[in-house]
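Section 4.2 – Deliverable D4.2 (structural model, holo form)

The reporting period included a commitment to supply a predicted holo structure for the target in complex with fe (ii) ion. Inputs used:
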Amino acid sequence: LRLPAFVSKTRSEVSPMIEPARSAHRFRAVRSRSVALCRPLALEDYSCQPMPDASPPKWHLAHTTWFVEKTFLALFEASTPATDPTYDYLFNSYYESQGARVARHLRGTLSRPTVAEVLAYRQHVDERVQQVIERGLSSEALAALELTLQHEQQHQELLLTDTKYLLGTQPLRPAYDADDAELAAEHRPLEASVGDWLDVAEGLRELGFRGDGDGFAFDNERPAHRVWLRDFSIRKSLVTNQEYQAFLDDGGYQRPDLWHAEAWAVIEQEKRTKPLYWTDEGTHYTLRGVSPRPPHAPVTHISYHEAHAFCSWAGFRLPTEAEWEVAAPSLAWGQRWEWTASAYAPYPGFRPFAGVAAEYNGKFMVSQQVLRGASFATPAGHERLTYRNFFPPTACWQYSGIRPARAFA
Ligand SMILES: [Fe+2]
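Output (C-alpha coordinates):
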Protein backbone atom coordinates (compact mmCIF):
# COMPACT_ATOMS: atom_id res chain seq x y z
CA LEU A 1 0.00 0.00 0.00
CA ARG A 2 1.36 3.40 -1.01
CA LEU A 3 -0.21 6.03 1.20
CA PRO A 4 -2.10 8.77 -0.61
CA ALA A 5 -0.08 11.91 -0.15
CA PHE A 6 -3.11 14.17 -0.02
CA VAL A 7 -4.17 13.14 3.48
CA SER A 8 -2.36 14.04 6.65
CA LYS A 9 0.36 11.56 7.49
CA THR A 10 0.34 12.56 11.14
CA ARG A 11 -2.58 10.25 11.83
CA SER A 12 -1.25 7.23 9.97
CA GLU A 13 0.46 5.45 12.88
CA VAL A 14 -2.57 5.38 15.11
CA SER A 15 -5.34 5.01 12.55
CA PRO A 16 -7.66 2.05 13.03
CA MET A 17 -8.81 -0.15 10.17
CA ILE A 18 -12.22 1.12 9.17
CA GLU A 19 -15.18 -1.19 9.38
CA PRO A 20 -15.72 -2.46 5.80
CA ALA A 21 -19.52 -2.84 5.62
CA ARG A 22 -20.18 0.86 6.02
CA SER A 23 -17.61 1.83 3.39
CA ALA A 24 -18.89 -0.77 0.97
CA HIS A 25 -22.45 0.42 1.39
CA ARG A 26 -21.57 4.06 0.84
CA PHE A 27 -19.42 3.23 -2.17
CA ARG A 28 -22.21 1.21 -3.79
CA ALA A 29 -24.85 3.85 -3.04
CA VAL A 30 -22.89 6.74 -4.54
CA ARG A 31 -21.59 4.88 -7.57
CA SER A 32 -24.94 3.37 -8.50
CA ARG A 33 -26.61 6.79 -8.49
CA SER A 34 -24.51 7.93 -11.47
CA VAL A 35 -25.86 5.08 -13.56
CA ALA A 36 -29.38 5.72 -12.26
CA LEU A 37 -29.19 9.36 -13.36
CA CYS A 38 -28.57 8.18 -16.92
CA ARG A 39 -31.49 5.77 -16.98
CA PRO A 40 -33.99 8.22 -18.58
CA LEU A 41 -31.61 8.81 -21.49
CA ALA A 42 -31.79 7.33 -24.97
CA LEU A 43 -28.70 5.47 -26.10
CA GLU A 44 -28.07 8.25 -28.64
CA ASP A 45 -27.83 10.83 -25.83
CA TYR A 46 -24.90 9.16 -24.06
CA SER A 47 -22.17 10.28 -26.45
CA CYS A 48 -23.36 13.80 -27.36
CA GLN A 49 -21.40 16.91 -26.35
CA PRO A 50 -23.46 20.04 -27.01
CA MET A 51 -20.66 22.47 -26.04
CA PRO A 52 -17.07 22.19 -24.75
CA ASP A 53 -18.18 22.79 -21.15
CA ALA A 54 -20.79 20.02 -21.17
CA SER A 55 -19.35 16.52 -21.31
CA PRO A 56 -21.26 13.54 -22.70
CA PRO A 57 -22.98 11.32 -20.13
CA LYS A 58 -20.89 8.33 -21.24
CA TRP A 59 -17.72 10.33 -20.62
CA HIS A 60 -18.85 11.23 -17.08
CA LEU A 61 -19.53 7.56 -16.33
CA ALA A 62 -16.10 6.53 -17.62
CA HIS A 63 -14.06 9.43 -16.24
CA THR A 64 -15.32 9.00 -12.68
CA THR A 65 -14.38 5.32 -12.91
CA TRP A 66 -10.93 6.21 -14.24
CA PHE A 67 -10.57 8.55 -11.24
CA VAL A 68 -11.34 5.68 -8.86
CA GLU A 69 -8.59 3.65 -10.51
CA LYS A 70 -6.03 6.46 -10.43
CA THR A 71 -6.57 7.80 -6.94
CA PHE A 72 -7.79 4.76 -5.00
CA LEU A 73 -7.06 1.45 -6.70
CA ALA A 74 -3.60 2.71 -7.66
CA LEU A 75 -2.77 2.69 -3.94
CA PHE A 76 -2.97 -1.09 -4.16
CA GLU A 77 -1.13 -1.24 -7.47
CA ALA A 78 0.56 -4.61 -7.12
CA SER A 79 -2.71 -6.51 -7.02
CA THR A 80 -4.81 -4.25 -9.21
CA PRO A 81 -3.21 -3.08 -12.47
CA ALA A 82 -5.09 -0.56 -14.61
CA THR A 83 -8.09 -2.02 -16.42
CA ASP A 84 -7.15 -0.66 -19.83
CA PRO A 85 -4.09 1.57 -20.45
CA THR A 86 -5.85 3.40 -23.30
CA TYR A 87 -8.38 4.77 -20.82
CA ASP A 88 -5.68 7.14 -19.50
CA TYR A 89 -5.85 8.91 -22.86
CA LEU A 90 -9.61 8.68 -23.25
CA PHE A 91 -10.86 9.53 -19.78
CA ASN A 92 -8.26 11.73 -18.13
CA SER A 93 -9.93 15.12 -17.64
CA TYR A 94 -7.17 17.60 -16.90
CA TYR A 95 -4.43 15.82 -14.94
CA GLU A 96 -1.13 16.79 -16.57
CA SER A 97 0.69 14.29 -14.35
CA GLN A 98 -1.28 11.50 -16.02
CA GLY A 99 -0.19 12.37 -19.53
CA ALA A 100 -1.83 13.21 -22.85
CA ARG A 101 -5.60 13.06 -23.27
CA VAL A 102 -8.45 13.65 -25.68
CA ALA A 103 -9.04 17.40 -26.01
CA ARG A 104 -11.92 18.51 -23.82
CA HIS A 105 -14.04 19.77 -26.70
CA LEU A 106 -13.65 16.45 -28.54
CA ARG A 107 -15.09 14.18 -25.86
CA GLY A 108 -18.28 13.92 -27.90
CA THR A 109 -16.39 12.34 -30.81
CA LEU A 110 -15.75 9.14 -28.84
CA SER A 111 -18.20 6.59 -30.16
CA ARG A 112 -16.00 3.90 -28.63
CA PRO A 113 -15.78 2.39 -26.13
CA THR A 114 -19.50 1.79 -26.32
CA VAL A 115 -21.95 2.57 -23.52
CA ALA A 116 -22.10 -1.15 -22.72
CA GLU A 117 -18.32 -1.30 -22.50
CA VAL A 118 -18.22 1.73 -20.20
CA LEU A 119 -20.86 0.20 -17.94
CA ALA A 120 -18.83 -3.02 -17.86
CA TYR A 121 -15.75 -0.94 -16.98
CA ARG A 122 -17.66 0.59 -14.07
CA GLN A 123 -18.74 -2.82 -12.82
CA HIS A 124 -15.23 -4.23 -13.13
CA VAL A 125 -13.67 -1.37 -11.15
CA ASP A 126 -16.46 -1.42 -8.56
CA GLU A 127 -15.90 -5.12 -7.93
CA ARG A 128 -12.18 -4.55 -7.42
CA VAL A 129 -12.90 -1.74 -4.99
CA GLN A 130 -15.32 -3.94 -3.05
CA GLN A 131 -12.61 -6.60 -2.73
CA VAL A 132 -10.15 -4.03 -1.41
CA ILE A 133 -12.73 -2.67 1.03
CA GLU A 134 -13.46 -6.13 2.36
CA ARG A 135 -9.83 -6.50 3.38
CA GLY A 136 -10.22 -3.41 5.57
CA LEU A 137 -9.13 0.18 5.01
CA SER A 138 -6.74 2.33 6.96
CA SER A 139 -8.00 5.84 7.63
CA GLU A 140 -5.71 7.09 4.85
CA ALA A 141 -7.15 4.66 2.32
CA LEU A 142 -10.62 5.58 3.52
CA ALA A 143 -9.85 9.26 2.88
CA ALA A 144 -8.73 8.41 -0.64
CA LEU A 145 -11.94 6.44 -1.17
CA GLU A 146 -13.98 9.37 0.12
CA LEU A 147 -12.31 11.72 -2.35
CA THR A 148 -13.41 9.43 -5.20
CA LEU A 149 -16.99 9.59 -3.92
CA GLN A 150 -17.00 13.37 -3.46
CA HIS A 151 -15.62 13.61 -7.00
CA GLU A 152 -18.34 11.25 -8.25
CA GLN A 153 -20.98 13.44 -6.60
CA GLN A 154 -19.59 16.56 -8.26
CA HIS A 155 -19.92 14.77 -11.57
CA GLN A 156 -23.46 13.71 -10.74
CA GLU A 157 -24.43 17.36 -10.56
CA LEU A 158 -22.65 17.96 -13.87
CA LEU A 159 -24.39 14.92 -15.36
CA LEU A 160 -27.72 16.60 -14.69
CA THR A 161 -26.72 20.09 -15.81
CA ASP A 162 -24.85 18.86 -18.87
CA THR A 163 -27.76 16.60 -19.80
CA LYS A 164 -30.21 19.46 -19.34
CA TYR A 165 -28.10 21.56 -21.69
CA LEU A 166 -27.84 18.68 -24.15
CA LEU A 167 -31.59 18.15 -24.29
CA GLY A 168 -32.75 21.72 -23.69
CA THR A 169 -30.76 23.31 -26.51
CA GLN A 170 -31.74 21.00 -29.33
CA PRO A 171 -34.73 21.68 -31.61
CA LEU A 172 -37.13 19.14 -30.11
CA ARG A 173 -36.24 20.05 -26.51
CA PRO A 174 -37.21 16.63 -25.19
CA ALA A 175 -37.86 16.17 -21.48
CA TYR A 176 -35.17 14.42 -19.45
CA ASP A 177 -37.95 12.68 -17.53
CA ALA A 178 -41.47 14.05 -17.89
CA ASP A 179 -42.94 11.65 -15.33
CA ASP A 180 -40.60 12.04 -12.38
CA ALA A 181 -42.57 13.87 -9.66
CA GLU A 182 -39.37 14.60 -7.71
CA LEU A 183 -38.19 16.86 -10.52
CA ALA A 184 -40.95 19.31 -9.58
CA ALA A 185 -38.48 20.59 -6.97
CA GLU A 186 -36.38 22.01 -9.80
CA HIS A 187 -38.38 25.25 -9.88
CA ARG A 188 -40.21 25.33 -6.57
CA PRO A 189 -41.43 28.80 -5.47
CA LEU A 190 -39.55 30.46 -2.61
CA GLU A 191 -40.95 30.58 0.91
CA ALA A 192 -39.16 33.71 2.23
CA SER A 193 -40.54 37.10 1.29
CA VAL A 194 -38.38 39.08 -1.13
CA GLY A 195 -38.62 42.02 1.28
CA ASP A 196 -36.87 40.31 4.21
CA TRP A 197 -33.24 41.16 4.91
CA LEU A 198 -30.74 39.94 7.49
CA ASP A 199 -28.51 42.58 9.08
CA VAL A 200 -25.07 41.41 10.14
CA ALA A 201 -22.93 43.53 12.49
CA GLU A 202 -19.29 44.18 11.75
CA GLY A 203 -16.67 42.05 13.42
CA LEU A 204 -13.89 39.51 13.20
CA ARG A 205 -15.27 36.32 11.63
CA GLU A 206 -14.03 32.80 10.98
CA LEU A 207 -13.99 31.58 7.38
CA GLY A 208 -13.19 28.14 5.98
CA PHE A 209 -13.36 24.50 7.06
CA ARG A 210 -12.66 24.06 10.76
CA GLY A 211 -12.81 20.26 11.01
CA ASP A 212 -9.63 18.65 12.26
CA GLY A 213 -9.66 15.26 10.61
CA ASP A 214 -13.41 14.90 11.01
CA GLY A 215 -15.54 15.14 7.92
CA PHE A 216 -14.52 15.81 4.37
CA ALA A 217 -13.51 19.13 2.85
CA PHE A 218 -11.64 19.98 -0.33
CA ASP A 219 -8.24 21.62 -0.10
CA ASN A 220 -9.70 24.92 -1.37
CA GLU A 221 -11.82 25.25 1.82
CA ARG A 222 -8.72 25.26 4.03
CA PRO A 223 -7.21 26.59 6.16
CA ALA A 224 -9.79 28.28 8.37
CA HIS A 225 -8.82 31.87 8.97
CA ARG A 226 -10.23 35.10 10.30
CA VAL A 227 -11.47 38.04 8.27
CA TRP A 228 -12.74 41.43 9.31
CA LEU A 229 -16.19 42.18 7.92
CA ARG A 230 -17.89 45.55 7.87
CA ASP A 231 -21.59 45.48 8.70
CA PHE A 232 -23.82 44.49 5.80
CA SER A 233 -27.32 43.31 4.92
CA ILE A 234 -28.09 40.22 2.89
CA ARG A 235 -31.47 39.22 1.52
CA LYS A 236 -33.22 36.21 3.01
CA SER A 237 -34.59 35.13 -0.37
CA LEU A 238 -33.07 34.67 -3.78
CA VAL A 239 -34.09 36.87 -6.71
CA THR A 240 -37.25 35.48 -8.33
CA ASN A 241 -38.25 35.02 -11.97
CA GLN A 242 -40.73 37.85 -11.51
CA GLU A 243 -38.04 40.26 -10.33
CA TYR A 244 -35.73 39.26 -13.15
CA GLN A 245 -38.56 39.72 -15.64
CA ALA A 246 -38.90 43.31 -14.39
CA PHE A 247 -35.20 43.81 -15.15
CA LEU A 248 -35.82 42.52 -18.70
CA ASP A 249 -38.93 44.66 -19.11
CA ASP A 250 -36.96 47.72 -18.06
CA GLY A 251 -34.45 47.16 -20.87
CA GLY A 252 -31.79 45.54 -18.69
CA TYR A 253 -30.16 43.78 -21.64
CA GLN A 254 -30.01 47.02 -23.66
CA ARG A 255 -28.20 49.15 -21.06
CA PRO A 256 -24.40 48.93 -21.20
CA ASP A 257 -24.12 51.05 -18.03
CA LEU A 258 -25.36 48.06 -15.99
CA TRP A 259 -22.80 45.58 -17.29
CA HIS A 260 -19.08 45.03 -16.98
CA ALA A 261 -17.28 45.80 -20.26
CA GLU A 262 -16.36 42.14 -20.70
CA ALA A 263 -19.96 41.15 -20.10
CA TRP A 264 -21.37 43.72 -22.50
CA ALA A 265 -19.09 42.40 -25.26
CA VAL A 266 -20.64 38.95 -24.75
CA ILE A 267 -24.18 40.35 -24.72
CA GLU A 268 -23.54 42.13 -28.01
CA GLN A 269 -21.71 39.26 -29.65
CA GLU A 270 -24.23 36.57 -28.67
CA LYS A 271 -27.23 38.90 -28.94
CA ARG A 272 -28.37 37.75 -25.50
CA THR A 273 -31.74 39.14 -24.40
CA LYS A 274 -32.77 36.74 -21.64
CA PRO A 275 -31.51 33.90 -19.44
CA LEU A 276 -30.65 30.47 -20.77
CA TYR A 277 -33.75 28.26 -21.28
CA TRP A 278 -36.17 31.22 -21.19
CA THR A 279 -38.52 31.72 -24.12
CA ASP A 280 -40.32 34.91 -25.12
CA GLU A 281 -43.64 33.25 -24.31
CA GLY A 282 -43.27 33.11 -20.54
CA THR A 283 -42.06 29.52 -20.53
CA HIS A 284 -38.72 27.87 -19.85
CA TYR A 285 -37.12 24.51 -20.46
CA THR A 286 -37.03 22.24 -17.41
CA LEU A 287 -35.96 18.63 -16.91
CA ARG A 288 -39.64 17.72 -17.30
CA GLY A 289 -39.93 19.66 -20.55
CA VAL A 290 -41.07 23.16 -21.48
CA SER A 291 -43.45 24.68 -18.94
CA PRO A 292 -44.65 28.09 -17.67
CA ARG A 293 -42.10 30.00 -15.59
CA PRO A 294 -43.27 30.16 -11.95
CA PRO A 295 -43.01 33.85 -11.03
CA HIS A 296 -42.00 33.23 -7.42
CA ALA A 297 -39.36 30.56 -8.09
CA PRO A 298 -35.71 31.64 -7.99
CA VAL A 299 -34.35 32.87 -11.29
CA THR A 300 -31.96 30.19 -12.49
CA HIS A 301 -29.15 29.52 -14.97
CA ILE A 302 -27.84 33.03 -14.45
CA SER A 303 -24.25 33.95 -15.30
CA TYR A 304 -22.11 36.06 -13.00
CA HIS A 305 -22.38 38.80 -15.61
CA GLU A 306 -26.18 38.68 -15.43
CA ALA A 307 -26.17 38.55 -11.63
CA HIS A 308 -23.98 41.63 -11.46
CA ALA A 309 -26.07 43.55 -14.03
CA PHE A 310 -29.29 42.72 -12.21
CA CYS A 311 -27.87 43.93 -8.89
CA SER A 312 -26.62 47.14 -10.52
CA TRP A 313 -30.09 47.76 -11.88
CA ALA A 314 -31.85 46.97 -8.60
CA GLY A 315 -29.50 49.03 -6.42
CA PHE A 316 -27.99 45.97 -4.74
CA ARG A 317 -24.65 44.22 -4.94
CA LEU A 318 -23.53 40.61 -4.68
CA PRO A 319 -22.24 39.41 -1.30
CA THR A 320 -18.61 38.43 -0.89
CA GLU A 321 -18.04 34.76 -0.10
CA ALA A 322 -17.00 35.73 3.44
CA GLU A 323 -20.28 37.62 3.94
CA TRP A 324 -22.18 34.67 2.51
CA GLU A 325 -20.53 32.14 4.82
CA VAL A 326 -21.12 34.25 7.91
CA ALA A 327 -24.78 34.86 7.05
CA ALA A 328 -25.68 31.45 5.60
CA PRO A 329 -26.50 29.66 8.91
CA SER A 330 -29.34 32.20 9.31
CA LEU A 331 -30.58 31.80 5.74
CA ALA A 332 -32.42 29.11 3.82
CA TRP A 333 -30.03 27.95 1.17
CA GLY A 334 -29.42 24.95 -1.00
CA GLN A 335 -31.80 25.69 -3.87
CA ARG A 336 -29.31 27.47 -6.10
CA TRP A 337 -25.61 28.09 -6.35
CA GLU A 338 -25.28 31.74 -5.44
CA TRP A 339 -22.80 33.93 -7.27
CA THR A 340 -20.53 35.94 -5.00
CA ALA A 341 -18.48 39.05 -5.66
CA SER A 342 -15.33 37.10 -4.73
CA ALA A 343 -12.75 35.99 -7.23
CA TYR A 344 -11.73 32.35 -6.81
CA ALA A 345 -8.39 32.64 -5.04
CA PRO A 346 -6.47 30.57 -2.49
CA TYR A 347 -7.13 31.15 1.18
CA PRO A 348 -4.09 32.45 3.11
CA GLY A 349 -1.92 29.41 3.78
CA PHE A 350 -3.60 27.28 1.10
CA ARG A 351 -1.85 23.98 0.46
CA PRO A 352 -3.05 21.87 -2.44
CA PHE A 353 -3.61 18.14 -2.05
CA ALA A 354 -0.43 16.27 -2.95
CA GLY A 355 -0.18 13.42 -5.45
CA VAL A 356 -2.59 13.08 -8.38
CA ALA A 357 -5.14 15.27 -6.61
CA ALA A 358 -2.73 18.22 -6.46
CA GLU A 359 -4.32 19.38 -9.69
CA TYR A 360 -7.86 19.12 -8.34
CA ASN A 361 -8.47 22.77 -7.38
CA GLY A 362 -5.42 25.02 -7.07
CA LYS A 363 -4.60 25.37 -10.74
CA PHE A 364 -8.07 26.77 -11.47
CA MET A 365 -7.71 29.69 -9.09
CA VAL A 366 -7.69 32.43 -11.74
CA SER A 367 -10.35 34.15 -13.85
CA GLN A 368 -13.27 32.51 -12.06
CA GLN A 369 -15.88 33.63 -9.52
CA VAL A 370 -16.86 31.75 -6.37
CA LEU A 371 -20.40 30.42 -5.97
CA ARG A 372 -21.70 29.37 -2.56
CA GLY A 373 -24.54 27.21 -1.39
CA ALA A 374 -25.77 24.13 -3.23
CA SER A 375 -28.49 23.46 -5.74
CA PHE A 376 -31.43 21.31 -6.67
CA ALA A 377 -28.93 19.13 -8.55
CA THR A 378 -26.44 18.72 -5.70
CA PRO A 379 -26.53 15.17 -4.31
CA ALA A 380 -27.95 14.91 -0.80
CA GLY A 381 -25.18 15.11 1.77
CA HIS A 382 -22.70 16.72 -0.60
CA GLU A 383 -23.49 20.30 0.45
CA ARG A 384 -21.40 22.07 3.07
CA LEU A 385 -21.32 25.58 4.58
CA THR A 386 -17.69 26.09 3.57
CA TYR A 387 -18.02 24.59 0.05
CA ARG A 388 -16.45 26.77 -2.66
CA ASN A 389 -17.84 26.18 -6.13
CA PHE A 390 -16.33 28.16 -9.00
CA PHE A 391 -17.10 28.93 -12.62
CA PRO A 392 -16.08 31.53 -15.20
CA PRO A 393 -18.30 34.66 -15.19
CA THR A 394 -20.01 33.62 -18.44
CA ALA A 395 -21.12 30.19 -17.20
CA CYS A 396 -24.90 29.86 -16.95
CA TRP A 397 -25.74 26.19 -17.41
CA GLN A 398 -25.42 25.38 -13.70
CA TYR A 399 -28.32 25.92 -11.28
CA SER A 400 -27.02 29.37 -10.41
CA GLY A 401 -29.02 32.26 -8.98
CA ILE A 402 -28.76 35.64 -7.29
CA ARG A 403 -28.82 36.61 -3.61
CA PRO A 404 -28.55 40.39 -3.19
CA ALA A 405 -26.57 42.21 -0.53
CA ARG A 406 -26.43 45.89 0.33
CA ALA A 407 -25.09 48.36 2.85
CA PHE A 408 -26.32 47.96 6.42
CA ALA A 409 -29.86 49.34 6.58
FE1 LIG B 1 -13.47 14.98 -12.70
